[in-house]
Amino acid sequence: MFQRILIVCAGNICRSPVAAAMLARLLPEREIASAGLGALEGHEVAPQARRLAEADGLDVSAHRARQLRSEMLTAHDLILVMSEGQRRAVGDLAPEALGKTLLLGRWLDHGKGRDIPDPYRKSDAAFEHVHGLLTDATSTWAKRI
Q1: Is residue 144 annotated as part of the catalytic site, yes or no?
Q2: Given 9, 14, 66, 87, the catalytic residue
Q3: pLDDT tens digits for 91-111?
C-alpha cells in the first residue's frame, strides 16, 4: 500500500502543490508531499493556480516550493510526475526510484495516459485546463490506490 506519495513537477508552484492538496483531501490517511525538479524554492503557489485551488475549497496558502532531492525519492512509496521527461529526470537523480515513478496522468484519456502540461506564465484558460486535468487525474489515482 502506498502510504507516502510524492508529486513532482518543474517549479513546484503550479501543478504539483495543487495536485498534492487534491490527493491529500481524497486520501487524508496518507502522507502526500510535492517538490520540483527545478523548484522556485520558497515561492508560493502561482496566483492563477491558487485561485482555482481555493475555488475548489483547497488551502494551498502554506505551500512553499522546494527542490526535489534524491532522499525524498527514497523516502516515498510512489512518485507521480507530470511528464515522461520528468520521469526520466527522476531516474537520473535516483535510478532506484524509477520503478515507483509513474505519470499522474497515467489513467487519463480512457487509460491511454497523458502528460499534464505546465501552465506557468500562460493564460488563465491554460491554468483552468490543467486544473481540470489535475482534478481528473487525482480522483482516478485515489480510486486505484
Answers
A1: no
A2: 9
A3: 999 999 999 999 999 999 999
93 to 72, 84, 88, 114, 132: CA distances (angstroms): 11, 14, 9, 23, 30
Catalytic residue among 14, 15, 50, 87: 15
User: What does pTM read for this prediction?
Assistant: 0.97
118 is catalytic: yes
For residues 103 and 81, the answer to whether their CB atoms sit within 8 Å is yes
- Grid cell locating 63: 505551500
- Considering the candidates 56, 77, 115, 118, report the single residue annotated as catalytic: 118
Residue 122, Cβ density class (10 Å: 0-12 exposed, 13-18 middle, ≥19 buried): middle
Eight-class DSSP state of 67: B
CATH of domain 4-144: 3.40.50.2300
Cell numbers 481524497: residue = 26
